[in-house]
């Protein structure tokens, strides 16, 4: 059953996509309560755009310029009083929808953060910083903007931020191959960010960063409590750190050619 927001308060949903035909339908179905859905696609070659249009979303095509710029562009296309940012690999539970609607209709702040319930290899990941994994996703129009970063984008809010209790459900990886593919992409983007800031690296630094990442996430932050999936995550994060700094060294070497 469709849940409608109060007529005096409207909600837009902003989503960025690239080849998400398998995950987008569940995401769009979970935000069917919204008055306005904006999908910004960066060149999908599958049925992502067709699916988005079939759900009534307003679709915009924009070449990829990084997570921050893509999401800021999506925000700028939204037309409602409030904006909710969600990714194609995320879904809202009915309880979360109800809480969002109640929140925007009894507004006492400019933005809300929501916890994220991350699932990997069929398991809810509770340790190593994966829970509650709070993130600001719901905000009043013109009260926030996205930082222009290639990775680890974040909202800058002008005003008070409060917390919602019910989570966003997040499935960050389709499978292990997808996890490795994302690790490669994120390590490249991270290396480029560091390079632009003038930072340097070495293979020794890459090894030390990777070793610390594994120790910190798996032991100090309790990743081992998540069983096999926790071990895979710790190894993946360590590999991400290693390749980010190894790629940073590679970029510096190219500059010296």
Any overview of this molecule?
With 257 residues, the chain is α/β, with parallel strands linked by helices. It folds into 2 domains: 11-170, Spore Coat Polysaccharide Biosynthesis Protein SpsA, Chain A, CATH 3.90.550.10; 176-255. Helices cover 41% and strands 21% of the residues. It is built from 7 helices and 13 strands. The strands form 3 sheets. A 7-stranded mixed beta sheet has the order 3-2-1-4-9-6-12, with helices on both faces. The protein has a 4-stranded mixed beta sheet with strand order 5-13-7-8. Helix 5 (176-196) runs parallel beside helix 7 (227-255). It is globular and about 60 Å long. The termini are far apart. Residues 1-6 have low confidence and may be disordered.
Provide the descriptors you would attach to this structure in a database record.
7 helices; Spore Coat Polysaccharide Biosynthesis Protein SpsA, Chain A; 41% helix; 257 residues; 13 strands; 4-stranded mixed β-sheet; alpha/beta
């Amino acid at each position: 059953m469709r849940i409608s927001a109060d007529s005096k308060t409207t909600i837009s949903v902003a989503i960025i996509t690239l080849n998400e035909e398998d995950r987008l339908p569940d995401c769009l179905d979970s935000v069917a309560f919204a008055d306005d859905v904006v999908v910004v696609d960066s060149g999908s070659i599958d049925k992502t755009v067709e699916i988005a249009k079939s759900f009534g979303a307003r679709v915009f095509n924009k070449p990829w310029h990084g997570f921050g710029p893509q999401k800021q562009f999506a925000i700028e296309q939204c037309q409602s009083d409030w904006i909710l940012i969600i990714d194609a690999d995320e879904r809202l539970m009915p309880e979360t929808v109800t809480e969002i609607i109640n929140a925007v209709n009894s507004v006492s702040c400019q933005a809300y953060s929501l916890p994220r319930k991350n699932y990997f290899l069929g398991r809810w990941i509770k340790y190593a910083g994966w829970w509650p994994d709070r993130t600001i996703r719901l905000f009043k129009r013109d009260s926030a903007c996205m930082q222009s970063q290639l990775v680890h984008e974040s909202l800058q809010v002008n005003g008070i931020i409060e917390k919602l209790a019910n989570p966003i459900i997040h499935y960050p990886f389709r499978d292990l191959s997808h996890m490795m593919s994302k690790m490669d992409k994120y390590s490249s983007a991270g290396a480029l960010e560091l390079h632009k800031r003038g930072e340097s690296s070495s293979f020794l630094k890459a090894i030390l960063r990777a070793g610390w990442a594994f120790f910190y996430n798996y032991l100090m932050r309790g990743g081992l409590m998540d069983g096999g999936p926790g071990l895979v995550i710790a190894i993946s994060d360590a590999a991400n750190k290693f390749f980010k700094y190894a790629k940073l060294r590679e970029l510096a070497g190219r500059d010296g050619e």
